[in-house]
């Protein structure tokens, strides 16, 4: 657990908390560390959860398969990001999606009841963590609105332009790398992979962009 303190210090939930105070609070919050190999599920659809979770190492996909096995990638979780918070409320219901390790990953689980209740030792920074949790949830909602903005576009080209434009702004550069391969990007945007690849080639031929694998440059 100690080696992940620098990562935890950079997370939104522990913003403003020192190394020593994080160590103390991990015990206070009943922290548990688990590791997952590529393809393993951290959470499964239908599961009830009671923990706030933070990815410390690796990357995860939030995904959903329909009855026929067609997969939609709803989002990617990178190291330092929190996930699962939408399902920890008493009446929030079971998980609607799977959370799957994209590669070897380490996850820390924090008991939400201990986060929201005053601890017996009256941790000095407990209130700050609760405040940080609120702001982190607000940020997640903003990202969801961004994705809905991509999804609301009518055509594959419009969805690509919307997503790639956002990535360029996010990375403050016309040249950038996205966290998806072609199939994952198609799943994320809910479009057919072949149609999307054809559209990307058309956009390249029209001089709108250049790309190689998951590296893009907008022209």
Give me some keywords for this one.
alpha+beta; about 220 residues; about 40% helix; Arc Repressor Mutant, subunit A; 7 helices; Jelly Rolls; four-stranded antiparallel sheet; 2 domains
Determine the structural class based on helices, strands and strand pairing.
Answer: alpha+beta
Ranges where pLDDT stays below 50 over 5 or more residues in a row are none
Figure out the total of helices.
Answer: 7
Helical residue percent?
Answer: 25-40%
- Main sheet record: 4 strands, antiparallel
- What fraction strand? 15-25%
Please state the oligomeric state of the protein chains shown.
single chain
Order of helices and strands: HHEEEEEEEEHHHEHHEE
The whole-number mean of residue pLDDT values reads 87
Record field, number of beta strands: 11
Task: Measure the end-to-end span.
Answer: 45 Å
Q: Examine the coordinates and then state which fold CATH places here, giving the name of the CATH topology of the largest domain.
A: Jelly Rolls
Strand order of the largest sheet: 1-8-3-6
Reading off the top of the CATH hierarchy, the class of the largest domain is best stated as: Mainly Beta
């Amino acid at each position: 657990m100690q080696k992940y303190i620098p990562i935890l210090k950079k997370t939104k939930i522990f913003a403003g908390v020192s190394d020593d105070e994080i160590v103390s609070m991990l015990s206070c919050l009943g922290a548990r560390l688990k590791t997952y190999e590529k393809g393993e599920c951290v959470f499964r659809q239908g599961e009830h959860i009671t923990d706030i979770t933070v990815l410390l190492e690796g990357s995860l996909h939030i995904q959903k398969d329909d009855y026929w096995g067609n997969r939609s990638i709803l989002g990617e979780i990178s190291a330092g990001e929190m996930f699962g918070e939408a399902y920890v409320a008493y009446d929030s219901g079971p998980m609607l999606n799977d959370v799957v390790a994209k590669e070897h990953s380490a996850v820390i689980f924090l008991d939400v009841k201990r986060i929201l209740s005053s601890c017996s030792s009256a941790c000095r920074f407990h209130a700050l963590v609760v405040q940080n949790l609120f702001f982190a949830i607000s940020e997640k909602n903003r990202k969801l609105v961004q994705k809905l903005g991509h999804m609301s576009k009518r055509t594959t080209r419009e969805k690509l332009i919307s997503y790639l434009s956002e990535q360029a702004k996010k990375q403050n550069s016309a040249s950038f790398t996205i966290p998806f391969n072609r199939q994952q990007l198609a799943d994320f945007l809910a479009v057919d992979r072949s149609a999307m690849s054809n559209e990307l080639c058309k956009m390249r031929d029209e001089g709108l962009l250049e790309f190689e694998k998951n590296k893009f440059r907008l022209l």
